[in-house]
Automatic annotation (TrEMBL):
<comment type="function">
    <text>May play a role in protein folding in the endoplasmic reticulum.</text>
</comment>
<keyword id="KW-0472">Membrane</keyword>
<feature type="signal peptide">
    <location>
        <begin position="1"/>
        <end position="32"/>
    </location>
</feature>
<feature type="domain" description="J">
    <location>
        <begin position="39"/>
        <end position="103"/>
    </location>
</feature>
<dbReference type="InterPro" id="IPR036869">
    <property type="entry name" value="J_dom_sf"/>
</dbReference>
<dbReference type="GO" id="GO:0005789">
    <property type="term" value="C:endoplasmic reticulum membrane"/>
</dbReference>
<keyword id="KW-0732">Signal</keyword>
<keyword id="KW-0325">Glycoprotein</keyword>
<dbReference type="InterPro" id="IPR018253">
    <property type="entry name" value="DnaJ_domain_CS"/>
</dbReference>
<keyword id="KW-0812">Transmembrane</keyword>
<dbReference type="Pfam" id="PF00226">
    <property type="entry name" value="DnaJ"/>
</dbReference>
<dbReference type="InterPro" id="IPR044632">
    <property type="entry name" value="DNAJC25-like"/>
</dbReference>
<keyword id="KW-0143">Chaperone</keyword>
<protein>
    <recommendedName>
        <fullName>J domain-containing protein</fullName>
    </recommendedName>
</protein>
<keyword id="KW-0256">Endoplasmic reticulum</keyword>
<dbReference type="GO" id="GO:0006457">
    <property type="term" value="P:protein folding"/>
</dbReference>
<dbReference type="InterPro" id="IPR001623">
    <property type="entry name" value="DnaJ_domain"/>
</dbReference>
Length: 305
């Protein structure tokens, strides 16, 4: 098969290419997603430099002219839809800025298209509202979990003989050592038991009563205050004990002792005062004293075995 001359072949392939280029340059795909083949500003009859008030007035004027209730012509209805769409794009500063950028940079097709779909089909929820909602949900579950654990722990403690003995001793104390013989040891009046149980301070390790101040949401709200308080405490500690070389106060020495022994705060509070005083006087925050104390505890543990 004979091929046509090269110049003819070049013209045959180049003409469709130039037509395609001309079409793309005339109607940019990134612009077409906004107002199809039309210009949003031309649809409203305003310039690109028009302010929000001018755009609004132009839309109201055209809507009175082309609205289906005012003009029954089918072509008028189509034009009204285009005008309304152009107004939705230009009335919002963010979408108008995106459209202006698409006009100025028609070559960035994919970028302009992505911005358009993100603006119109992306989530509209304020991230701050999502964060607040998430904190409320987590705080609710946290409070429910703490309450359930505490109530279960209290129910288990109330079944122990030690608790019942304390309850009986408290009843004897309140009655002056006189008990009602009609009541057996096992059948204490429920109302009396509830009243007496309220007077007993139950210290349950690992299960504390639910507190609003320990919830995640409350702590997040108070985070700036907490950080400020921590920074102030750190500065005062550094000034008092590092710069001025003052001796440790009893509270600070207790804190250092508790931290050196890695004892949780709730357990430290439950230690009797005599044991606390002995531990603090040992100055266990000093490495040599702590090593001696640990060795002493190991020897004592071996003797007990």
């Amino acid at each position: 098969m004979d091929l046509p001359p090269a110049p003819i072949r070049w013209r045959a392939t180049a003409i469709p290419f130039f037509v395609a280029v001309l079409f793309v340059s005339t109607i940019s795909p990134s612009r077409a997603i906004y107002c199809d083949e039309d210009d949003c500003y031309d649809l409203l009859g305003v310039s690109q430099s028009a302010n929000a008030s001018e755009i609004k007035k132009a839309y109201y004027k055209l809507s009175l002219k082309y609205h289906p209730d005012k003009n029954p012509d089918p072509e008028s209805r189509k034009l009204f839809v285009k005008v309304a769409n152009a107004y939705e794009i230009l009335k919002d500063e963010a979408t108008r800025e995106q459209y202006d950028y698409a006009i100025a940079h028609p070559e960035e097709v994919f970028y302009n298209t992505a911005r358009y779909y993100r603006a119109y089909y992306g989530h509209k929820t304020d991230p701050r509202a999502v964060l607040v909602g998430l904190l409320l949900i987590l705080s609710g579950f946290q409070y429910l979990n703490q309450s359930t654990r505490y109530n279960q722990a209290v129910a288990m403690v109330k079944k122990t003989p030690a608790y019942k003995n304390k309850l009986r001793a408290l009843e004897l104390e309140r009655s002056g050592g006189v008990t009602n013989k009609k009541k057996s040891q096992k059948n204490m009046d429920k109302k009396t038991e509830e009243d007496l149980s309220k007077e007993l301070d139950l210290q349950i390790t690992g299960a504390e009563m639910a507190s609003v101040w320990k919830l995640l949401g409350v702590r997040f709200v108070l985070l700036p205050y907490t950080l400020g308080k921590l920074l102030l405490w750190t500065a005062c500690w550094f000034w008092r004990y590092k710069v001025k070389k003052y001796p440790y106060s009893w509270e600070d020495a207790s804190y250092l002792t508790q931290r050196s022994l890695s004892i949780p705060l709730d357990r430290w509070r439950n230690i009797d005062e005599a044991t606390k005083e002995d531990l603090v006087l040992r100055r266990l925050w000093e490495k040599s004293n702590l090593e001696s104390y640990v060795a002493e505890m190991r020897k004592e543990s071996k003797r007990r075995r």
